[in-house]
Amino acid sequence: MLTHIKIAAAKPAAKSYNLYDTLGLHLAVRPSGSKLWRVNYRYLGKHKTLHLGAWPGLGLADARAKRDEARRKVSEGIDPALEKRRAKIAARYAAANSFEDVAKEWLGKCEREGLAQVTIEKIEWLLAKAYTKVH
């Protein structure tokens, strides 16, 4: 099993190498010096690797917790790597379709269509009231 001392003492080499923990968890040490958590698992008969994060931002205990969560998902019939990819796409899509973005796009369309300046200003004023303010 890995310890914090073993992880901190791991030095980069000419080639990437892995430091193994338990149940498929390992730390990939890159020639650049970065240390990245990975977990190996099998899903539908295929060997897969899930990327968990970088050390020291993600510590040993957190990496083990994420490994356990991934193993739980596999036992439920869910591919954790595919689920992670889908969540990332959904977050990007949700961020790109905020009310403010859609309203600005519509306002640009109104300007291109040649609406009167006073009308554009009234629309801008009304939309400014509708945007979510974060304080």
UniProtKB/TrEMBL annotation:
Signal peptide: none annotated. Residues 2-87 form the Integrase DNA-binding domain. It comes from the Bacteria. Keywords: DNA integration. Belongs to the 'phage' integrase family. This is DUF4102 domain-containing protein. It comes from Novosphingobium decolorationis.
